[in-house]
Amino acid sequence: GPIATLREKLHVSCESIERSADRMEQMIAGLLASARTEARSIPLRCSEVALADPVRTAISLNLAAAGAKQIRIEEMLGEVQPIVADEDRLIEAVDNLLSNAVKYSMPGGAVRVETGRDTKAGFAYVRVSDQGQGLSAEDLGQAFKRFQRLSAKPTAGEGSTGLGLAIVKAIAEAHGGSVEVASSGKDRGSTFTLRLPIGGPKA
Predict the structure, then answer these.
(1) How many CB atoms lie within 10 A of CB 187?
(2) d(C-alpha 200, C-alpha 29), whole Å
């Protein structure tokens, strides 16, 4: 009956929360380690990774927050051949980009996540675009600095450490990659592109 259905739904929700909490605990430990060290000394455990996998995990970690604000997460996961990377660190980086996109978007908007590869340049990429508050010229210059608060404000009173983008940059650079941001200005949304070398970090 309806009670059994409700019980089943609660069970699934609790399992999902527990998984998210475990993942969060791992990430916070990693995040604090990242905050204490410089980019290149982030220890990586690299293996062959299908880029869509960590991206899907990061999306699943942000579904509840997005759902609470009626924000759609649109997936365009095009890359198939694996790259050499640290999967947990990629989850951490994409999770940071996605949680920012959700945090700074108005309710009812959409966030798009794309993956692909530029084989000629030897890079794969993850691109996270939102329709949110956008970044000013000054923000663009400051975006990846530690403990930096930008002009955009979370739209539902969420908190911010000012560390998320610095960590994304540190993870990108530890892989021998990069992260960049583009925005057409205030209230025009922003696009973050994480680039990763297909063959992994060069020793």
Answers:
(1) 12
(2) 23
- Which residue type occupies 98? L
Q: What is the CA radius of gyration of the chain?
A: 17
What count of other Cβ atoms lies within 10 Å of the Cβ of residue 116?
15
Q: What is the pLDDT of residues 100-143, one digit of tens each?
A: 899 888 899 999 999 999 888 899 999 999 987 777 777 666 77
| 88 token code pair | 């947990």
String of DSSP letters for 5-54: HHHHHHHHHHHHHHHHHHHHHHHHHHHHHHHHS-GGG-----EEE-THHH
Q: Is 129 exposed, middle or buried (0-12, 13-18, 19+ CB in 10 A)?
A: buried
| pTM of full prediction above 0.85 | no
